[in-house]
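Hi Q.,

Before the meeting this afternoon, I wanted you to have the 5-O-phosphono-beta-D-ribofuranosylamine prediction in hand. No need to reply - just skim if you have a minute. The sequence and ligand are here:
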Amino acid sequence: LRIAVFASGNGSNFQAIADAVQAGKLDVSIELLVCDKPQAPVVARAERAGVEAFVFKPKDYASREAYEQEILQKLRDKQVDLVVLAGYMRIITSVLVEPYEGKMINIHPSMLPSFPGVNAIGQALQYGVKVTGVTVHFVDGGLDSGPIIAQRAVDILPGDTEESVAARIHAVEQELYPQVIEWIAAGKVSIEGRHVVID
Ligand code: GRF
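Predicted structure with the ligand bound:
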């Protein structure tokens, strides 16, 4: 399976995927990192991992669709079969969603459908839930709304802060995301309408 990872920030999920590939635990090739923030730490991580990066500034383009067309061309050139969103903080339009329907996944730091959108961990703390979690899902046209592939629960404990919850969530993400990609690479994941079946 040939994958591209899209990220905007730290890239701890990118790193976990690259490390799993390096360790022989994940049988995919990372063809491309796509990043919209030239200063993001994930760019240096890709360089260290020997992964080609397409780094762009959205302001250099007339529209979202314009840079997405360029990204789409690169994905096609590299024959990417799965797009992995890992902290990519931009809305994705139908330019990419349609050609990669059923072939684009996202990881979100909450138990969806609770707390979609930005600052999911802060939203969960503010609401006062006792359990939050991590969701990996296919991407459709909506906000964090596509068919759910896997979820893991994370307890919120007395005295927790955004930072302490985030640390536990990130540890769970870094285990779950490579695992889900491996299931997809092994052909174990299929979509039946709203439902994802894993054999
Ligand atoms: C993760 O918490 C992920 O769930 C969210 O953005 C964060 C990215 O973290 N979508 P990192 O850049 O992979 O460290």
